[in-house]
């Protein structure tokens, strides 16, 4: 792919990488940091240029490439999640269900997502309501239960930071994800140094309380607002600053209990359709805390299917949705007969690549999305896994899932002090490359580091 118009055209000879990279390593932004790069000939898999290839690096969201490739290998591009609506008890001739409606979660991260017409909150809830009506149910003398038991109660992986949990990108995953496990908090700045008004939420979160400690920041300081809302809690603290010219009306927070919110919204839709519900919205976890067992069995009323995995992978990489990666890790474990947990899924990923010749010590991770700063992956391992994907029948799906940045197909990743790029490129000469390039512990501007890293990658053009 040619370089973007206006960019200088560096030498296509990758040997020029060595000098450029040596100069880059002396950059002031890397005075206390480290850079690692691995470039392979995509047709042969042979190394073209490697520096610090066996040093464990924090990968940030470039880790999503490994989660994606492993998922496509083990689940297949046509894999789909299935969420089932069931009822327990019996329906009498008058249309009264003396029993519960249960939403059995499968781990689908797209349930209620606005990214596909068939997965939107409106489409899913109306389909379920129609299924209840078609069964002849006019009244429910029971509860609406969100069942997340398939993946346990630990939604947030170990290693995630407190400043991330509670914000949309730090939303944990469960067997019953809902609306990508997030909601919006509507804000209005006042005067610099003054309070930021909380106008409301979207949708209305009338079961949550908010403690608003936000202040209005000076022009140009942007959104530095953070939500502190742990899983399964009902009080959210809003802290930080929100610029007077922030230019957006809201910040996005993580749903503390997606399974409950899903059941709660379904109850509201049923009642708006004239179907009275005598019980409450609840979850298997809440029932357990009350000392009540989740009803077993049940008869199916309907089901909601996710898009195919190839489509999920596209959104996962293009929009860097952390939730999707965490759901996939747990799904890999379940579909391979393991416990539906993050540690079980991570073990399976490492074992899978060990069987394909990757040293497990070079792939030490806590999650599937790259949000944890405790993750460590070598660029040699990442580039080898990317190279492995080229041999698969579904490689086209994965390749198309990678965003185009700097004229190259590559996944970016960044958290504090970390920036990385991993993907593929075909030079003007026709030579094809697979690469992974990560910088850790740099200082200064992230955008400046991005420009410098792209100038290194330009040597592959």
Labels describing this entry:
461 residues; alpha/beta; Beta-lactamase; D-tyrosyl-trna(Tyr) Deacylase, Chain: A; 2 domains; 6-stranded antiparallel β-sheet; 5-stranded mixed β-sheet; globular; disordered N terminus
Description:
It is a single chain. By secondary structure, the protein is of the alpha/beta class. It has 2 domains: 214 residues, 3-Layer(aba) Sandwich (Beta-lactamase), CATH 3.40.710; 225 residues, D-tyrosyl-trna(Tyr) Deacylase, Chain: A. Helices cover 27% and strands 26% of the residues. The protein contains 11 helices and 24 strands. The strands form 6 sheets. A 6-stranded antiparallel sheet has the order 2-1-24-23-22-21, with helices on both faces. A hairpin with a 5-residue loop joins strand 1 and strand 2. Helix 1 runs antiparallel to helix 11. The longest helix is centred in the middle third of the chain and has 15 residues. The N terminus is likely disordered.
- Which range does the strand content fall in? 25-35%
The CATH homologous superfamily of the largest domain corresponds to: D-Ala-D-Ala carboxypeptidase C, peptidase S13
Enter the CATH topology name of the largest domain: D-tyrosyl-trna(Tyr) Deacylase, Chain: A
Number of domains: 2
Rg calculated over all Cα atoms = 24 Å
First-residue to last-residue Cα separation: 8 Å
Helix content: 25-40%
User: Main sheet, how many strands, which sense, barrel?
Assistant: 6 strands, antiparallel
Average pLDDT, to the nearest integer? 95
- General form: globular
CATH architecture level-2 label of the largest domain: 3-Layer(bba) Sandwich
Strand order of the largest sheet: 2-1-24-23-22-21
Number of helices: 11
């Amino acid at each position: 792919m040619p370089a973007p118009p206006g960019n200088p055209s560096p030498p296509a000879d990758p040997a020029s990488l060595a000098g450029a990279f040596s100069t880059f390593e002396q950059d002031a932004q890397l005075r206390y940091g480290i850079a690692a790069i691995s470039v392979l000939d995509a047709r042969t898999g042979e190394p073209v240029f490697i520096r610090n290839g066996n040093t464990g690096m924090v990968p940030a969201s470039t880790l999503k490439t490994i989660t994606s490739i492993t998922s496509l290998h083990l689940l297949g591009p046509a894999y789909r999640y299935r969420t089932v609506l069931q009822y327990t008890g019996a329906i009498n001739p008058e249309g009264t269900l003396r029993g519960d409606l249960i939403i059995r979660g499968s781990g689908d991260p797209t349930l209620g997502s606005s990214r596909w017409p068939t997965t939107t909150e409106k489409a899913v809830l109306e389909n379920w309501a129609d299924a209840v009506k078609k069964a002849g149910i006019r009244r429910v003398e029971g509860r609406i239960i969100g069942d997340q038991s398939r993946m346990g109660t630990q939604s947030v992986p170990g290693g995630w930071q407190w400043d991330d949990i509670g914000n949309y990108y730090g939303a944990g995953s469960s067997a019953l994800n809902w609306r990508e496990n997030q909601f919006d908090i509507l804000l209005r700045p006042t005067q610099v140094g003054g309070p930021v008004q909380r106008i409301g939420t979207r949708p209305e979160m009338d079961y949550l309380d908010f403690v608003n400690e936000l202040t209005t920041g000076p022009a140009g300081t942007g959104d530095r607002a953070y939500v502190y809302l742990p899983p399964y809690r009902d009080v959210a603290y809003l802290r930080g600053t929100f610029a007077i010219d922030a230019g957006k009306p809201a910040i996005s927070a993580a749903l503390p209990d997606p399974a409950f919110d899903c059941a709660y919204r379904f109850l509201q839709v049923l009642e708006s359709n004239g179907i009275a519900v005598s019980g409450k919205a609840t979850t298997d976890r809440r029932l357990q805390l009350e000392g009540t067992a989740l009803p077993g069995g049940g008869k199916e009323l309907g089901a909601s299917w996710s898009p195919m995995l190839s489509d999920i992978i596209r959104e996962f990489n293009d929009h860097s949705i952390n939730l999707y990666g965490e759901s996939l890790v747990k799904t890999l474990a379940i579909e391979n007969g393991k416990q539906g947990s993050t540690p079980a899924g991570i073990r399976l990923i490492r074992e899978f690549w060990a069987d394909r010749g990757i040293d497990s010590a070079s792939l030490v991770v806590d999650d599937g999305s790259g949000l944890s700063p405790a993750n460590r992956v070598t660029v040699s391992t990442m580039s080898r896994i990317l190279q492995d994907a080229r041999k698969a029948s579904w490689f086209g799906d994965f390749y198309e899932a990678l965003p185009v940045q700097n004229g190259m197909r590559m996944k970016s990743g960044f958290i504090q002090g970390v920036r990385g790029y991993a993907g593929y490129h075909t030079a003007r000469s026709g030579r094809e490359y697979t690469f992974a390039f990560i910088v850790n512990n740099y200082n200064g501007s992230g955008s400046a580091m991005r420009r410098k890293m792209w100038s290194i990658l330009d040597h592959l053009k």
